[in-house]
Write a structure and sequence with these properties.
Order of helices and strands: HEHEHHEHEHEHHEHEEHH
Mean pLDDT: 95
CATH topology: TIM Barrel
Structural class: alpha/beta
Bound molecules: 3-methyl-2-oxobutanoic acid
Distance between the termini: 57 Å
Helix content: 25-40%
Low-confidence stretches: none
Oligomer: single chain
CATH superfamily: Phosphoenolpyruvate-binding domains
CATH architecture: Alpha-Beta Barrel
Strand order of the largest sheet: 1-2-3-4-5-6-7-8
CATH class: Alpha Beta
Number of helices: 11
Largest sheet: 8 strands, parallel, barrel
Length: 274
């Protein structure tokens, strides 16, 4: 039975309805503890495949597996109550066919209980997006610089700085919106292009290194907290956690080495024989 005080999760249709409305606040999280901290401040928590680089020290997101995404998706669902949790589909789990995509997405929805999935690709993924949405899978699309294609793109540089490139990205944006995606991440594209995409399509754009003109923003949590060693140039740091962690670890190591580390006696004193 549900209680009246139960916190209800934000849904994909509610995010869709935010087009031209209150800006959508999104961040990544891969763990129950950070998800719990973000939950009351963000609308969307993305369990991004960036976890491969951020958590596992991989060079790219390409080696990330479906099992890794499901494991961390479950943790984030356990740690949060309110935000819409979106789980990224990793490279190789959805591109082969619409059927492969549905099978992988169904696993993610069933095993994590998340509210939506995200996949990379514009016009080339439109048919798959339509197939998924018609079968009950809410899809957040991802266009612009798509990190899973790093081996064909050659670099993580921003796209659309040359106006001659714009038609392709505008076509991608229209294709995913027409196919039924409830929102679209626009990554690392020149500001005027992001603005034009946002003005032209009927679904919310969520920018990362794109533009303040987007309908919302997303950042990788560890990047904005100052925990990541290498971050894209567009990332604004809202914290310097690496320094805090190093300071705390050094203080601990110093106490242990100087034998000043408090023993258990101050917590549960021994009863001495009288
Ligand atoms: O994997 C990820 O964290 C992402 C964001 C950068 C949008 O896709």
């Amino acid at each position: 039975m549900s209680s009246q005080n139960e916190i209800r999760r934000i849904t994909a249709p509610e995010i869709h309805a935010r087009k031209n409305g209150e800006p959508i606040v999104a961040l990544t999280s891969y763990h129950a503890h950070t998800a719990g901290l973000l939950d009351q401040y963000v609308d969307v928590i993305l369990v991004g495949d960036s976890l491969g680089m951020v958590m596992h020290g991989l060079e790219t997101t390409v080696p990330v597996t479906l099992d890794m995404m499901i494991l961390q998706g479950r943790a984030v669902m356990r740690g949060s109550k309110r935000a819409l949790v979106v789980v990224d589909m990793p490279f190789g789990s959805y591109e082969e066919s619409r059927e492969q995509a549905f099978r992988s997405c169904a696993r993610v929805l069933k095993e994590t209980h998340c509210g939506a999935i995200k996949l990379e690709g514009g016009a080339r993924m439109a048919e798959t997006i339509r197939f998924l949405v018609e079968r009950g899978v809410p899809v957040m699309a991802h266009i612009g610089m798509t990190p899973q294609s790093i081996n064909t793109l050659g670099s993580f540089r921003a796209r659309g700085r040359d106006e001659a490139e714009w038609d392709k990205f505008l076509a991608d944006a229209h294709a995913v919106a027409d196919a039924g995606a409830f929102s679209v991440v626009v990554e690392a594209v020149a500001e005027p292009l992001a603005k034009r995409i946002t003005e032209e399509i009927a679904i919310p754009t969520i920018g990362i290194g794109a533009s303040a003109a987007c309908d919302g923003q997303i950042l990788v949590l560890e990047d904005m907290l100052g925990l990541s060693q290498r971050v894209p140039k567009f990332v604004k740091r809202f914290g310097e956690l690496a320094g805090h962690i190093e300071g705390a670890v050094k203080a601990y190591a110093d106490e242990v080495r100087s034998r000043k580390f408090p023993g258990p006696e101050h917590v549960y004193p021994l009863k001495r024989k009288t």
